[in-house]
Design goal:
By secondary structure, the chain is mainly α. The protein is built from 4 helices and no strands.
Length: about 100
């Protein structure tokens, strides 16, 4: 909920109320339906959950998408030049 408070207020200030609620509720519904689909496919019908975490993730994703340029330019990522290596197959060294 702290993430929703921090990111949600900033996203709400950038968007209007209807767009923010649309992103949050759509993320929650998609999260709930995804969880339900996974549980039905696993024949596990006992657990029940709501998509509040899906709504929070959708709000965080929308804020990151809108502020991608400022987030990536201010991230403390060092510029490391790694040597080029040759391509190695994923199954190298495994028995056939």
């Amino acid at each position: 909920m702290t993430v929703l408070w921090i990111v949600g207020t900033r996203l709400h200030d950038s968007l209007n109320r209807a767009d923010f609620l649309n992103i949050y509720i759509t993320g929650g519904v998609v999260g709930t339906l995804t969880n339900l689909t996974v549980n039905v496919l696993r024949n596990n019908l006992i657990p029940c959950s709501l998509g509040a975490s899906g709504g929070v993730c959708a709000a965080l994703g929308a804020w990151l998408w809108m502020n991608l340029q400022s987030v990536t330019s201010s991230a403390p990522i060092p510029n490391i030049n790694l040597p080029q290596t040759e391509w190695v197959p994923a199954n190298a060294g495994l028995p056939h």
